[in-house]
Amino acid sequence: MTSRSENLTGAAWMTAGMFGYVVNDAFIKRAAEDLPLFQAVFLRGLVVVALLTLIVRVRNVAVPVRSYLDRPLLLRMAMEAIGTVAYLITLTKVPIAGLTAVMQLLPVAVTFAGARLLREKVSTHRVVALLMGLVGVLFIIKPGGDDFSPWFLGGVITVGLIVIRELATRNISAALPGTAVALGTGVVITTMGAAITVFTGWEQPNTSTLLLLASGACFLSLGYVASVNAVRTGDISFTAPFRYSVLIFAIALQIIVFGDVPDGFTFVGSAIVGAAGLYALAHEQRPTIKPAR
Description:
By secondary structure, the chain is an all-alpha fold. It has one domain (4-284). The protein has 12 helices and no strands. Helix 1 packs antiparallel against helix 9, helix 1 packs across helix 11 (245-256) and helix 5 (105-117) packs across helix 7. The radius of gyration is 19 Å and the shape is globular.
């Protein structure tokens, strides 16, 4: 049974991971304006692999090569690679707002999977926090304005692949550090980017684009390590609502970096998402009172 402190640590890791991912997205989106998308993924991946390898070496983490033959780890890396391709292809076919709406099925899906397959206890308070977060997301993305496209099924497929990835992560050997798991993921994604680049072409990157990719790689490395540690540390059902924090970070980035102030619905939604996280934390910190005998 996962302890209260482990769940709180998992929530912190999840929030840090979402921050890393959203900042990376901003860098890769800008870099992809100058380079083919998968070339950018490949070049960014080279920095990710180099950075995580350095961290593993500095921390003197012993990772035998055979550790990467761990079946749950292989499954996780496969789902990560296929999910990345599915998401990026879908993103080129449908409006980003619509795809974002579909991806918000993820916290609900992983909670359900954790309860059914990992036998996690999902309390009423966790369900309330999850639904509060979902309501906040609906305020932010305001779905319903786009015509349906079969390509939206790509988003549903991506959600399913990520759920399998998270379940596999829970079963990875505890002897394999989160940094090493992230390194394996980085190697697979980088290799995938290189393979697809063979077919999509290569363009000479300039210095500013390379700096964007290197910066994105630093935050993506944070996202990889933090998200792995989040799933391995806390209950999936408890950390799930904190996945919604990615939207709050995205809105803050939109205001600070791009100077684009969102509408009132977005601020209301952000407040609801934040309240959902605080509600989950407050309940998890509440001590259990044992009845007198």
